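Aim 2 progress update. The chain analyzed this quarter is reproduced below.
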Amino acid sequence: SFRVLRNDRYAVFCFGFDIYTILVDCLTMAGFNVALVPFIWAKNTKSTENPLSMYSNSYEPLLVARKGSPIFLRPGRSNVLSIPVVQDRLQVVQKPTELIKEFLRDMITSGSTVVDWCAGTGSTGVACHELGMRSILFEKSPSMAAIARARLGALT
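Predicted structure tokens:
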């Protein structure tokens, strides 16, 4: 990611807390400046493995990393955003296009190109299309790549 990202740009990484330290170390070693306090997506859900003994997981953390010294297009925004999960999700970790569009509006201008290394169902591509941006998507899973292609193909 660091090598192909232009200078003075952002990168956003979804992660689980079990790999937080490893991810921060890897991103830092690659050359990124990492905001150590994660961005929090409040999902407004109540899922847990054991509701009798554990709190429900109602948020996901994301790390915002910088290459160079980019600035937000909409400065002063909170690092907590409440957007409900996608109903009728195509995969369990699918991110809402509205969440992705919030990052895009903060970080890049219309006409820019966005790269998503783990495209999943193509939500980043859909968000880019809706905001007049180009997207380059990579997905390892053939079944997820097929879903992403179908979603994006329906937009043209």
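The mean pLDDT is 92. The two ends are 28 Å apart (CA to CA). These observations will guide the mutagenesis experiments scheduled for the next reporting period.
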